[in-house]
Amino acid sequence: MHELSIAQSVVEIASRHAGGRRVTRIYLKVGHLRQVVPSALAFSFELVSQGTPVEAAELDLEEVPAAGMCRVCGAESRLESFPLRCAACGGLDIELTSGEELYVESLELEEHPQETGS
After folding, report:
1. Where are the beta strands (DSSP E) in 32-87?
2. Which residues of the chain have pLDDT under 70?
3. What is the pTM of this model?
4. Structural domains of the chain sorted by starting position, each given as residue range(s) with its CATH number in brackets
């Protein structure tokens, strides 16, 4: 289950950029070709975020569809299934233009740093 390692990386990235503030929402772009199962990622995220500045943050996933440009005819098309074929000519020589993304796009943070208990 690669979702667990993805969730761990997301928590590390968000924690590092939080600057001592609590993270309330994480916007994550996930390309269709990454084959991430949203429910498995959400479950993993909840587990690995416990005890971090990211705990209880909302994970907002945006799935990016696969698309590519045909090197034969030059058409750009959405790639729905394997094998990845040009929708215009049926060619298989495709340069991917989207669908492999996997990154934290942005974070929502509390305005003030977290208070540390004494």
Report:
1. 58-64, 67-70, 76-78
2. 1, 113-118
3. 0.82
4. 3-65+98-109 (3.30.2320.50)
